[in-house]
Specification:
The chain is built from 10 helices and 9 strands. By secondary structure, the chain is of the alpha+beta class. It has 2 domains: 66 residues, Winged helix-like DNA-binding domain superfamily/Winged helix DNA-binding domain (Arc Repressor Mutant, subunit A); 170 residues, GAF domain (Beta-Lactamase, 2-Layer Sandwich). The strands form 2 sheets. The chain has a 6-stranded antiparallel sheet with strand order 6-5-4-9-8-7, sandwiched between helices. A 3-stranded antiparallel sheet has the order 1-3-2. Strand 4 and strand 5 form a beta hairpin. Helix 2 packs across helix 3. The protein starts with 17 loop residues before the first helix and ends with a helix. The relative contact order is 0.10. The N terminus is likely disordered.
Length: 260
Amino acid sequence: MKKSVVLDIEVAKGDLIDGLIKGIDVIRAFNGETVQLSATEVADKIGLSRSAARRYLLTLVHIGMAATDGRNYWLTPKVLSLGHSYLDSARLPRAIIPFLQRLTSQLQESSNYAVLDGDDVVYINRVNAQRVLSTGFDPGTRLPAHTSTAGRVLLAALPDTALQAYLHRVTLVAYTHQTVTDKDILLRELLAIREQGFAVTENQYETGLRGISVPIKTRHGKLVGAISVSMLISTCSKVEATAKCVPALQATANTVMLWV
């Protein structure tokens, strides 16, 4: 089987297409807080002139990825095709779904596969538990890495220099009254996660929610993501949840490791 190779190279500025970069920035300007934006608002958000922002927005309208009422613009579902292109082309996100399905069936808890993207964790796949109230994050959800159990597992796996650089540049925002915002405390917790090989978080991004996660590595030790389960804290104690879920998560990660 042919193995894929990801090259970490520095690209010369002359080889970059600035218009493509700006076009992606325009798409990313829209979020849950700014569902609709005018050309002026887009220009202010990403540092363009109003006329340039308008041309980018009209181009998105032309290809069906945005719509407009003449003043404001908003994204259309066609933008999702960009994410589906990744899911369709990437081997692991497609292959990991049966493993998550078995894990969810075994534990009766929602399971997720996530990767680190900059200072955020991005949830790529999710399998819901069959409950009236399911917990977890939809595919494509981005969370600050320090608030997520998968994010902490992935941060803990970084080399020391990369971890220190993350702690130096990031601002630890509180999302609940228990979110860890002290960098010294977070570092101690990340080093403990590195040592024990799994993470358990409670009330970090959402009050009442617990996450348990382990890293996924290839046979050569390369980190390729994290799998996690999420549940309501009220379902059982932290000790019970850890004893129940960690062995199953680690067994799943070990099985995936043999495949990737």
